[in-house]
Specification:
Helix content: 55-70%
Number of strands: 0
Distance between the termini: 24 Å
Shape: elongated
Number of domains: 1
Length: about 70
Amino acid sequence: MSVGGSNCVKHNWISGVLLDIESYALKNDLPMLADAIAQVQNVAEAEISAQNDTAPAPTTPQARSRQDRPSQH
């Protein structure tokens, strides 16, 4: 995951976990799960980047629609 800032350190483990799940899905013929995890990875990157005020352009429709929603904090 290519996000910077202090939240990156706090959240950097999530990228590894998601990549492990995606790899497992691909190796075990679970393509729909692998695709869903790839989308979750994009959401994680977008949210972590947004916390650092360096949000990248969303790479999936799901990430774009989530960023357009008002914050629920």
